[in-house]
Amino acid sequence: MKKSAASVLLLGLAGILSAPCALAAKTSDAQVREATELLARLVGTPTVAGRGQVPVLADALAKRLVAGGFAAEDVQVVPMGETAYLTARYRGTGAKRPMLISNHMDVVEARREDWKRDPFVLATADGYHFGRGVSDNKFDIAMVVETLLRLKREGFTPSRDIILVFSGDEETAMKTTAALAELYPDAEFLINGDGGGGTLDSGHKPLTYSLQTAEKSYASYTLTVTNAGGHSSRPRPDNAIYQLADALKRLQAYAFPVMHTETTRGFFDFTGKQRGDALGAAMRRFAADSADAAAIAEISSDPGYNANLRTTCVATLLQGGHAENALPQKAVATVNCRIFPGVSVESVRATLAAVVADPAVTVAVVDEPFSSDASPLREDVQRAVRKAVDANFPGLAVVPEMSNGATDSQYFRAAGIPSYGASGLYMRDEDGYAHGLDERVPVSAVPRGLKHWHALLTELAK
């Protein structure tokens, strides 16, 4: 998953979030070339579920890290089924607790016949690098790895261990993520390249930088109605399909309670100031008074911004009946929910059951999802992100955000490790083709990404 555009927090933090800092060390043409070559290698390995290529890529990255100065015993590739995860420890003095750097090595499927170019060959044209996973999430893998190798060459000794935790199935089951989240309980925080990042306008000028501090959890539920059925020539009132349809209509009419955090209030305050319309005015009123009913109604009318106000649930799958000439014995709907930070999976299930208000409808959780809280706004992380942003665009507004999608960070937050999405990628919204056709990143993103990660890591581990 890659970041979406913006939310902001400027609540008493202007000194950290807005003041320019010293620029990072210059990035050479050779470093840009090496990072681009690594990105090509990453894109060229089709780490799609079922192809067994994640371990191949993990092994290649492990060899590159060891060749660049990492101790062999500090780099591990751990297979899990057909996938794997990678860990690598850049040892520091131990003056501070370890920090984790997260990215995911797997990508979603891409079919050659659908693309203009081979999706698993990095192609460069019209100022862009094209390829599956080039933005989600292999760009930041390449930038992080090359930055750490540069720091090794420079003789940088961090105050804390810097530990890579690269997952292998973030786009599917996230079992490697769950395993990684349990390995380092002593970690002070995690920085995730698969979240946050910079937004450019249509003319490629910077608008904001988003620091992901929270994300909604993902959970699905089934609504099931069963009965004895019978012959379709003798209809009865207790039809499983009708009962399920009635339950879904009640759910459609329901809105979860409005919630807020300092991140989302700051988001609405900043975003409202950027707009000159009624919606922007409503955002500012909500930031000042979260009980303002008129402001809530105005914001709720926009599906994207409504998702920043509350937990949302929506029916996404439907199945029922077994024959066209028989009364249905079973009807099932799948409801997908994006849960506001701090809300439990079970409490959402209980709310769905109450909204359905029909004992004939069974509401059950699918698989074993979980929820996680928002991460606190640490001054050291904010200061480091400020420095990293200034390395490319001095003074650009830094925007803490709550993502409506999910990343590996949710597992680490649930394990008690504060997690922050801080990608080095700057993109226009119209170039956001992650998971889609002709996925791309600007060629200019590579030198910017290298500057970003060099400034970020050296500040966090100085």
Provide a quick synopsis of the model.
This protein is an alpha/beta fold. The protein has helices at residues 14-17, 29-43, 54-67, 138-154, 175-180, 240-252, 262-274, 278-288, 293-300, 303-306, 345-356, 379-390, 409-414, 445-460, and strands at residues 75-80, 83-90, 99-104, 123-125, 128-130, 162-167, 189-192, 197-200, 206-215, 217-226, 230-231, 312-320, 326-327, 330-339, 361-365, 398-403, 419-421, 426-428, 440-442. The protein folds into two domains: 14-215 and 372-460, Aminopeptidase (3-Layer(aba) Sandwich), CATH 3.40.630.10; 217-260 and 296-365, 2-Layer Sandwich (Alpha-Beta Plaits), CATH 3.30.70.
Secondary-structure topology with pairs:
Elements: H1 14-17, H2 29-43, H3 54-67, E1 75-80, E2 83-90, E3 99-104, E4 123-125, E5 128-130, H4 138-154, E6 162-167, H5 175-180, E7 189-192, E8 197-200, E9 206-215, E10 217-226, E11 230-231, H6 240-252, H7 262-274, H8 278-288, H9 293-300, H10 303-306, E12 312-320, E13 326-327, E14 330-339, H11 345-356, E15 361-365, H12 379-390, E16 398-403, H13 409-414, E17 419-421, E18 426-428, E19 440-442, H14 445-460
Parallel strand pairs: 3-6, 3-7, 7-17, 8-18, 9-16
Antiparallel strand pairs: 1-2, 2-6, 4-5, 5-19, 8-9, 10-14, 10-15, 11-13, 12-14
Helix pairs in contact: 2-4, 4-14, 7-8, 8-9, 12-14
